[in-house]
Design brief:
This protein has 398 residues and is of the alpha/beta class. The chain has 2 domains: 173 residues, Flavin prenyltransferase-like (Rossmann fold), CATH 3.40.50.1950; 209 residues, CoaB-like (Rossmann fold, 3-Layer(aba) Sandwich). Helix content is 34%, strand content 23%. It is elongated. Bound molecules: cytidine-5'-triphosphate (CTP). Cytidine-5'-triphosphate (CTP) binds next to α12 and β16.
Length: 398
């Protein structure tokens, strides 16, 4: 996957640095070469000796190491790589990068390089969400930096939320993708996500409990494998991923039009919880409580079925059409029937009964149904389910 590629790996000072050692191993196993650079803080978490042993290369730590300057200057060190990877990218490193600081070897290398840079952020959830960090991130993204993660979950500091460094396997996939060599490089995938809002009047709407977490995780995982992703999302709670083309919509009608406009695509994944009905004629002004006290009557029309529409297209039908089936009863039977009825290639079935905590929760337990049969996956985080599904999609589109 990384044959002959040189990675300059900048290790920041965070607890996730221990996972970076595994990343070094994975890069080498995939045929790449790694030159590690440890910041002063990183040396508190991993030793230069272990990084150097795994990389089978010299480890650089100091800017003013004259022997190194004679052998290979920092400019040369940063430019001889095919990709610079920063993992873990701490809040401090991101701030230095965004501000253009160059006061140690790591930041100087990042300033001196003209090679693409991939960051794998890791920090406490409050630090991640802090406006200063988010501002720095926007600056870096505008500069064209690649990013993987952070993941959401339990953190070493005992808190829960976004901030955990992406797993080494996911970072490896992103490295391959950043080098234009991901398993989905050159492929276009459309993903729908989130709920839709169907207006009743200008202030009220019909909606559902979808948070958009599963669709967002799928879009992220597909982009991590190198796919060009068009992400058509209803008003979701979860922020859309970076590195994908985001098309925000409100209603099912708008979602259908956005999906049609995004085609052709190699695959389409319909993870949105589309409202089945819309109010026949949404009121132009706010509906007032009548004098009679009787509630207004709402006439409903059926919304277009986006998945079925795309799966039945003669022209422009993606090679692989993947639907979801949110069921509360007879999950397998209903989902199997739904796959046939909607003519999609795969259905990802999940039990959304309230006791499962899946709708709006962080985990999912799914069964993948295709023409050959059904395969149940163990309950896992939505991020893990997304990674698995993205890997299957990559296999199918080979
Ligand atoms: N879907 C869609 N457009 C709709 C309704 C659903 O694209 N108007 C897609 C969803 O994104 C999902 C799949 O169809 O991939 C199944 O959604 P689900 O809510 O489980 O099924 P419904 O079509 O609503 O069927 P039912 O109400 O009978 O369960």
């Amino acid at each position: 996957m990384l044959d002959g590629k040189r990675i300059l790996l900048i290790v920041g000072g965070g607890i996730a640095a221990f996972k970076t050692l595994e990343l070094i191993r994975l890069i080498r196993k995939s045929g790449g070469a790694v030159t590690p650079v440890l910041t002063r803080a990183a040396k508190e978490f991993v030793t230069p000796l272990s990084a150097s042993a795994l990389a089978a290369d010299k480890v650089y730590t100091d800017l003013f190491d004259l022997t190194d300057e004679a052998e290979m200057g920092h400019i040369e060190l940063s430019r001889s790589a095919d990709l610079v990877v920063v993992a873990p990218a701490t809040a401090d490193l991101l701030a230095k990068m965004a501000g253009g600081h160059a006061d140690d070897l790591a930041s100087t290398l990042l300033m001196a390089t003209d090679t693409p840079v991939l960051i794998a952020p890791a920090m406490n959830v409050r630090m991640w969400l802090h406006p200063a960090n988010q501002r720095n991130l926007t600056t870096l993204e505008n500069d064209g930096i690649f990013r993987i993660g952070p993941d959401e979950g339990d953190m070493a500091c005992g808190e829960y939320g976004p901030g955990r460094m992406a797993e080494p396997e996911a970072i490896l996939d992103s490295i391959a993708s950043a080098l234009g060599n991901g398993p989905l490089s050159g492929k276009h995938v459309v993903v729908t996500s989130g709920p839709t809002h169907e207006p009743i009047d200008p202030v009220r709407y019909i909606a559902n409990r979808s948070s958009g977490a599963q669709g967002t995780a799928i879009a992220k995982a597909l982009a991590g494998l190198g796919a060009k992703v068009t992400f058509v999302t209803g008003p979701a709670e979860v922020a859309p991923p970076s590195g994908v083309s985001v098309i925000p919509v409100e209603t099912a009608d708008q979602m259908l039009n956005a999906v049609k406009a995004a085609l052709p695509a190699d695959a389409a994944v319909f993870a949105a919880a589309v409202a089945d009905w819309r109010v026949t004629r949404a009121a132009k002004g706010k509906i007032k409580k009548g004098k009679s006290g009787a509630p207004p009557k709402l006439n409903l029309d059926e919304n277009p079925d986006i998945l079925a529409t795309v799966a039945r297209m003669r022209k422009n039908r993606p090679e692989l059409v993947v639907g979801f089936a949110a069921e509360t009863d007879n999950v397998l039977a209903n989902a199997t029937a739904k796959r046939k009825r909607k003519r999609c290639d795969w259905i990802v079935a999940n039990d959304v009964s309230p006791e499962t905590g899946i709708m709006g929760g962080d985990e999912n337990a799914v069964t993948l149904i295709d023409a050959k049969g059904a395969e149940s996956w163990p309950r896992a985080s939505k991020v893990e389910v997304a990674r698995r599904l993205a890997a299957r999609i990559a296999d199918a589109l080979k």
